[in-house]
Amino acid sequence: MRVLKDFVKWFLYITMGILIVCAVNFQIADAESIPKETLWQILLSGFLTTGITVSLYPRNGSNKSTFWVEILAHYLALCIIMILCGYWFGWLDFDLGGISMMVVSVAAVYGITFLIYYLIDLKQADEINQKLKEKYGERVGGK
After folding, report:
1. Contact, 42 vs 18, CB < 8 A?
2. In angstroms, rounded to a whole number, what is the distance separating the alpha carbons of residues 114 and 14?
3. Helix, strand or coil for residue 63?
4. What is the DSSP code (8-state) at residue 141?
5. pTM (2 d.p.)
6. Is residue 40 predicted with pLDDT exceeding 80?
7. First CA to last CA across the chain, in angstroms?
8. 3-state helix/strand/coil string of 22-54
9. Which residue has better confidence, 142 or 95?
10. Which is it for the CA torsion 41, 44, 49, 53, positive or negative?
């Protein structure tokens, strides 16, 4: 059940990040409208990258050097999936410029996704701390 909950959470965060980056890219390209199939493509790419994230993202307990290697492997796997999806969906030209743009787009989605994750996690931690303070007083937090 935990895996399903994590999958849904990451799917929402990642798909929101992809939507934001696509909106910016469409704005930069001065597109008049977004083709209707693009919405399904965003959902599918969100689903695929969520699968990669749930499978490859480093778990708690990794040491620093292992953590950064796992982050790099995760990012590279996301880039490969999105380059293949981008080529399949017609989002990029399969050349150095198109691939570079997708790598930058993946980095932007990565940043947006983890910013959202961090902010929500921070809010949840604050709520937990507040409830603990209400229950146990000022003894919580090592004071």
Report:
1. yes
2. 9
3. coil
4. T
5. 0.78
6. yes
7. 36
8. HHHHHHHCCCCCCCHHHHHHHHHHHHHHHHHHH
9. 95
10. positive
